[in-house]
Design a protein that fits this description.
Blueprint: H1 2-68, H2 77-101
Helix pairs in contact: 1-2
């Protein structure tokens, strides 16, 4: 009878240990899930920001190209030449930014 009680006590202790181990693993699993979700949100936000930046660069590029091609030209040839120089400079900067993105 005593052996039976010892076996039952050992089984109960083992059962408790296993329950604790399962709880620890469940907690770790939940922590990892939350961490993965957090990283996914960060990646999603980064992609949105990158897309906005690319759109903004395209808009600036179009403005610079208009300046180069005389889209902002006035009666003053000095102003037109100045805008062309600015347009070329802006395009160089945008091209550099686009190349560093990729």
């Amino acid at each position: 009878m005593e052996d039976k009680d010892k076996i039952i006590a050992k089984l109960k202790a083992e059962n408790e240990r296993l329950k604790e181990e399962v709880e620890i693993r469940d907690n770790l699993s939940e922590t990892f899930r939350k961490e993965a979700l957090s990283w996914a949100n960060i990646a999603n936000d980064y992609q949105k920001d990158k897309t906005k930046l690319e759109q903004t660069l395209q808009e600036i590029k179009e403005i610079a190209e208009m300046a180069i091609n005389g889209g902002y030209a006035t009666k003053s040839s000095d102003y037109s030449e100045g805008m062309e120089i600015i347009g070329h400079y802006v395009l160089q900067l945008i091209t550099k930014a686009e190349e560093s993105e990729g």
